[in-house]
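Q: what sequence does this backbone want?
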C-alpha cells in the first residue's frame, strides 16, 4: 500500500504542473452526476504576508479574483458517496498580477486534491491555494442499478 502510494506520488511529480491539460469545456462523466457547470468548488486561499485566509466558492467555467490572483476554475470532481475511497479535486488555472497595470502571468495549471494536497501543490511565495470541496449530486439509481424487493 505504501509502495503504491510512493509510486503514484513519484509519477505525479514527474511531469510539471504546467504540462497538465485542462479537461474539455463542459466535460462530464458519461452517466448522470451533476453537469460540470452546476458543480460548486470550494477554494481556500492563504495570504502569507498578512496571514489572512479566505474561502471562495465558484463554478467550473468561471474565474474568481483574490488580490493579485485570478483563479480560473475549469473542473471539479468528487467520488460518489458509496465509493470505498473519497476523492475531491479541482482543475485550476491561476494567474498572478504582481501590481496593478503589470501583465498577468500563469503561475499554475493543474489538479489540486483535497485529500492529498502534497501530490500536486500550488507553490507561490505570497499565497497558498487549495481545493477543499466539490459539491455535486449523484443519482440514486443508474443503468446498472439492481433493485432488490
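A:
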Amino acid at each position: 500500500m505504501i509502495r503504491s502510494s510512493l509510486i503514484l506520488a513519484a509519477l505525479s511529480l514527474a511531469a510539471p504542473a504546467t504540462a497538465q491539460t485542462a479537461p474539455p469545456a463542459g466535460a462530464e462523466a458519461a452517466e448522470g452526476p451533476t453537469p460540470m457547470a452546476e458543480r460548486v468548488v470550494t477554494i481556500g486561499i492563504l495570504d502569507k504576508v498578512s496571514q489572512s485566509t479566505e474561502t471562495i466558492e465558484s463554478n467550473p467555467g468561471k474565474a474568481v479574483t483574490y488580490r493579485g490572483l485570478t483563479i480560473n476554475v475549469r473542473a471539479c470532481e468528487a467520488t460518489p458517496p458509496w465509493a470505498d475511497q473519497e476523492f475531491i479535486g479541482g482543475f485550476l488555472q491561476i494567474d498572478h498580477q504582481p501590481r496593478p497595470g503589470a501583465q498577468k502571468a500563469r503561475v499554475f495549471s493543474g489538479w489540486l486534491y483535497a485529500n492529498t494536497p502534497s501530490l500536486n501543490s500550488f507553490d507561490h511565495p505570497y499565497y497558498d491555494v487549495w481545493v477543499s470541496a466539490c459539491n455535486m449530486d449523484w443519482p440514486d439509481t443508474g443503468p446498472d442499478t439492481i433493485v432488490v424487493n
